[in-house]
Write a structure and sequence with these properties.
The chain is of the alpha+beta class. The protein has 8 helices and 8 strands; from the N terminus they run H-H-H-H-E-E-H-H-E-E-E-E-H-H-E-E. It has a 4-stranded antiparallel beta sheet with strand order 2-1-3-4. Strands 6-5-7-8 form a 4-stranded antiparallel beta sheet. The radius of gyration is 24 Å and the shape is extended.
């Protein structure tokens, strides 16, 4: 009977984990945030206990898994709908390097030492810091690099060209919310933004999923859409 109970409990724990992952989303299986990491370890431990603990009712761990799943779903909902909550729970990108300048204080904030940074540079194919214009630590813990224009593959310097240095695009609208500080940094105002949206036949900022502005004041707008393609483009 004990062996049969272990088999049944193991199957039940697998079903519970599968349903929990479906509710939380595929992010749990790809890029883990701090809360995803904590949640994954905790739910996994509960499921293992559920499968092997013989002196407790099997539905106790199920309740615990359900509680953690609901909490993670609420966190996901908050980060999707609330900008402040998103920044607190998911974190923000940290600028580590820009225009060839390393920001020591941001390294300390990110808890990354220079040796680890150089390792990540080499892993991403940059053996010379002079080839990097901008480096960002993303909320998922990975570092994104923007190379200098003349250090990209098929380097323009090889064909004696001197292209203008690309800069990071600034997010002006995110999920229907105007990022006013970023808008100010572009040297523009609300009236300019409204005019640019009007040119693209967008009358309501709430219809914009994301809008970015480049160094030439060109606005790239991506509208919200109800489309949800369910085909796998690789299979």
């Amino acid at each position: 009977m004990d062996i049969l109970k272990i088999i049944i409990s193991s199957l039940a724990s697998l079903v519970a984990l599968f349903l929990s992952t479906k509710i939380i989303g595929n992010r749990q299986m790809s890029e883990l945030s701090m809360f995803d990491y904590i949640n994954g370890i905790t739910i996994g431990s509960i499921a293992a206990e559920m499968a092997t603990e013989m002196d407790k009712e099997f539905y106790y761990p199920l309740i615990a898994i359900a509680v953690y799943t609901v909490i993670m779903w609420l966190m996901s909902f908050i980060t999707e709908k609330n900008m402040t909550g998103r920044r607190f729970l998911a974190g923000r990108s940290i600028l580590l390097m820009e225009n060839g300048k390393l920001f020591e204080k941001n390294f300390k904030t990110a808890k990354i030492d220079i040796n680890e940074f150089l390792t990540q540079c080499r892993i991403n194919g940059y053996f010379n810091l002079d080839d990097i214009d901008t480096a960002l630590l993303e909320p998922n813990g990975k570092i994104s690099f923007l190379p200098k224009s003349d250090a990209k593959p098929l380097s323009p310097r090889d064909i004696q060209l001197s292209p203008d240095q690309e800069k990071l695009l600034k997010v002006i609208i995110l999920d229907g919310h105007i990022m006013r500080e970023n808008l100010k940094r572009t040297g523009n105002d609300i009236r300019w933004l409204e005019n640019e949206l009007h040119k693209q036949k967008i009358g309501n900022i709430k219809d914009v999923y994301i809008a970015e502005c480049d160094n030439n004041n060109q606005l790239f707008v991506y509208k919200k859409t109800g489309d949800a393609p369910n085909n796998d483009p690789f299979q």
